[in-house]
Every structure is written in structure tokens, then in C-alpha cells.
Design goal:
Blueprint lengths: L14 E3 L9 E3 L9 E2 L3 E2 L19 H8 L1 H17 L1 H14 L4 E4 L8 H13 L4 E6 L2 H11 L6 E7 L13 E6 L26 H4 L10 E5 L2
Helix pairs in contact: 1-2, 2-3, 3-4
């Protein structure tokens, strides 16, 4: 099935409660993952909308959980993620206004940006920062491989707001040469780096890639204040 979608000015964003890993206390705003329209071997092309991760994640493209889950749950994921992506590309300011109102209406305390998808532009990052400043009572956090955007922001503004936690996402050394500036780093542990055995691992995922039942809103390591800590996450 091909979900062929186009931008409509009346579109409303989709803001969802966290899944069984994140916990119900965390809300999520997602975009389409990948660097091209999502396809699957058995169903062919699933959407005409291109994903938001272009140029930042080629080394783990075949192992991307976000692409895998978008294919698996395409009947619900693709319409909502494509809609968010289209609104973002055609009306960025309007998208953030909608997100802000949804956060207020739902009395959200914690928002994760992008368990699916990525920061697509520097302006998008600036609006994430402004939203955190506008809503200081909400904790925002995200993982990213858009290192150039992060370095540019820190060069221009020195630090993120205390309620916006930026976690650097590493895969097979892709952070080499990046100035971490005290940010936290999350390393994807696929079993190929023995040194990661000594690193604190995310308690929500077991060594065999299964969910443990520990929720992100219980652990809270992902959205604690940046202090340069390193966390490994088992392949899942």
C-alpha cells in the first residue's frame, strides 16, 4: 500500500504518548526516518514523502529500528509521521505553534524529540531551543547525529537551555573529531567494541535486545543534566 500524501494547510500535528520503553510519562514528537521514501521488500514503496535523516546515518541504515518499526506498523506510523514531516517542511513556525499548544493542552512534563526522524535544518534546531525557553517547566530531550548543527549552535550560543538535553548518538566511531562540549554521548552497542562492556548501559534494553520493562521515565538518565557521561545501548 502506498500512502501518497501532500501538504494541506489544515493538517494538525500528531503528538503521542510514550511507548512501552519510554513510559506513559513521556510524550514524543516524531518525523519520518531515513533518507528516502520508506519501502519494504514485500509491499514496495510505502510513502511518497522523503525521510528526514539524509546524510547523517548511512552507516547504520540497514539496522535502523525507526525504519524497521515504521515498516512494521506502516498503517499507523506512516500517515502520522508523513503528516508531521509535511507540516514541518511547509510551515515550520506553524508546526512549532501546534506542538506548543499540544504540550500545554496535554499538561506534558517530558517530551522526547524524534524517536523517529532527525533535525532537518538549523532553523528547526533554533525553534526547538526557543520552545524550551518558552516552556521552562517542561523537560525536553533528543538524540542526534546532526553534529554540524550542534557545533554551530554551541559556537553561537555557548549552551542549550537547562531543560533541553542534547544527547550525541554514536555508531562505530562516527563522533570522531566532534567537539562534545560536555554533552552526553549514547553509544550503540552492537557487540563489536569490547571496551563498551565497562560502560553503563541503558537499563531498558537487555543484552539480547529485549525490553526489560524499565521505562525511561523511571531511569531518567536520558534527560538528566548534561555532564559528559557516556551510556551504551544494546542493539535492539
Amino acid at each position: 500500500m502506498l500512502y501518497r500524501m501532500s501538504y494541506d494547510p489544515t493538517m494538525q500535528i500528531s503528538l503521542v504518548k510514550g511507548n512501552s520503553k519510554l513510559g506513559k510519562g513521556v510524550y514524543v514528537f516524531n518525523l519520518l526516518p531515513g533518507d528516502e521514501p520508506i519501502s519494504s521488500k514485500d509491499k514496495g514503496q510505502l510513502t511518497n514523502v522523503t525521510g528526514t535523516c539524509g546524510g547523517c546515518c548511512s552507516e547504520c541504515k540497514m539496522n535502523c529500528y525507526a525504519i524497521r518499526d515504521t515498516r512494521r506498523y506502516h498503517n499507523t506510523c506512516i500517515p502520522s509521521l508523513a503528516k508531521n514531516t509535511l507540516i514541518m517542511r511547509h510551515n515550520l513556525s506553524g508546526m512549532f505553534e501546534q506542538v506548543k499548544q499540544a504540550l500545554i493542552d496535554n499538561k506534558v512534563k517530558i517530551l522526547r524529540w524524534h524517536s523517529s526522524g532527525e533535525i532537518e535544518s538549523y532553523d528547526y534546531l533554533l525553534k526547538m531551543v526557543q520552545l524550551a525557553r518558552d516552556l521552562p517547566e517542561i523537560k525536553f530531550y533528543f538524540y542526534t547525529k546532526r553534529f554540524a548543527f550542534i557545533e554551530r549552535f554551541l559556537d553561537e550560543h555557548n549552551a542549550f537551555p537547562v531543560n533541553l538535553i542534547c544527547n550525541i548518538s554514536e555508531w562505530n566511531g562516527n563522533t570522531d573529531g566532534f567537539r562534545l562540549n560536555g554533552l552526553d554521548k549514547f553509544v550503540y552497542d552492537d557487540g563489536t567494541d569490547p571496551d563498551l562492556a565497562r560502560v553503563t548501559h541503558c537499563p531498558a534494553v537487555s543484552k539480547d535486545g529485549k525490553k526489560t520493562g524499565i521505562h525511561c521515565d523511571q531511569c531518567r538518565r536520558c534527560f538528566s543534566v548534561n555532564d559528559g557521561k557516556i551510556t551504551a545501548v544494546y542493539a535492539h
